[in-house]
Write a structure and sequence with these properties.
Layout lengths: L2 H15 L19 E11 L9 E11 L34 H18 L5 H20 L2
Antiparallel strand pairs: 1-2
Helix pairs in contact: 2-3
């Protein structure tokens, strides 16, 4: 088995182990559910002594006390954000970011990939070109004004 197959297998294993958005709202049912509610109440109790050799002391402890349960809040549902169109011909105009960094990302990615390939050695060429592409795309986007 060559190194490339091992690297691809390791990457597939890592990506497969990452949490996915499909399971973000998943919860497993079952278990014990209690309808009683309790709170911890701090207590102190003085215990008198029997003489000079055995002075009195204060016993400090917490006591579990049953209380009325607060009503459960309803689960919030996700609401899609709404987009309000800016006025086309009025005094009020919203700030719109119509800046695109597509060109800078493409040119930066090409330049970064070329630099990564040029500076790579035989041992690290498999990861240096993709790293150069990603880094070049990020720098190119910033230079382009995105």
């Amino acid at each position: 088995m060559n190194k490339l197959t091992k690297v691809i297998g390791a990457l597939a294993l890592i990506v497969g182990a990452l949490p996915t958005p499909a399971l973000a709202d998943y919860s497993q049912g079952g278990g014990m559910k209690s309808t009683d509610c309790f709170k911890k109440v701090y207590r102190e109790e003085y215990i008198p002594g029997t003489g000079a050799s055995n002075p009195g002391r204060v016993r400090k402890y917490y006591e579990r006390q049953k209380v009325a349960c607060a009503p459960r809040r309803a689960r919030r549902t996700y609401r899609q954000p709404t987009w309000i169109e800016p006025h086309s011909g009025g005094a009020i105009q919203g700030k719109v970011d119509d800046n695109s960094c597509i060109e800078g990302s493409i040119l930066g990615g090409i330049a970064g990939g070329a630099a990564g390939g040029t500076l790579a050695t035989k041992k690290n060429w498999i990861w240096s070109i993709p790293a150069g592409i990603i880094g070049g795309a990020m720098v190119g986007c910033q230079v382009d004004g995105g």
